[in-house]
Hints:
The chain is an alpha/beta fold. The protein has 11 helices and 11 strands. The protein has helices at residues 2-17, 32-43, 59-70, 85-95, 134-144, 160-175, 192-202, 214-218, 220-229, 254-269, 290-293; strands at 21-26, 49-54, 79-83, 101-104, 125-127, 150-155, 179-184, 207-210, 234-236, 248-251, 286-289.
Amino acid sequence: xxxxxxxxxxxxxxxxxxxxxxxxxxxxxxxxxxxxxxxxxxxxxxxxxxxxxxxxxxxxxxxxxxxxxxxxxxxxxxxxxxxxxxxxxxxxxxxxxxxxxxxxxxxxxxxxxxxxxxxxxxxxxxxxxxxxxxxxxxxxxxxxxxxxxxxxxxxxxxxxxxxxxxxxxxxxxxxxxxxxxxxxxxxxxxxxxxxxxxxxxxxxxxxxxxxxxxxxxxxxxxxxxxxxxxxxxxxxxxxxxxxxxxxxxxxxxxxxxxxxxxxxxxxxxxxxxxxxxxxxxxxxxxxxxxxxxxx
Length: 295
């Protein structure tokens, strides 16, 4: 009897001592989302061993990392975590269902082809969206911005998700008497100064809606400086722009989204199938204004 109890105790110790191994595929380096993920995993007692694969916003780099570094070691990982639409799409295509994929900070996982409306197709993935309701974003913005008729929407042609958001935004903007006009930006930092000058000219008299686009986030300081210098009002859909004096934004919290991704793994570890875990959102987005951010 005592020997049996001792054996069971040792079994429990062995199970709890096992550290999950997670491959973390990132598009633009670690963000507060990954910080939240790590903190929540530790809080939940999972204490994973995490290996980071950073694409540095380059598709070719990511493809090489997946093929030459992740592929030879894939068998040892329990989960793959991915950040952002592009990295998540490429990682899903690479994995082909061989490992559970937990994606994070993807605005429209259905439109981007990550999640399927058929739950049976989602057996090996689940994740978190950073999308905040567009009607809420625009209604909040209308309270703070002067009346006007034109809304300019910068589109990075390399980011499919941005284009999807633009399609969804058009009817919402129209309900608040804004006519949406897309504006293509060349995502080449060598052309940044000339592109920003062109934006200042084309956006004159408009409100600019800035989507959660990785390239735009990477140039947040320069982008917001150019728009503010030209006295152009802005609506920002992600918190990265708020410190640079965006006019108004209704934004989610990356740390919260990271914690939600960790909780997905915890639920899966306890036996909930990934396809039965609904898409997660930050349910308490914050309304931020330029004046509020300054204090």
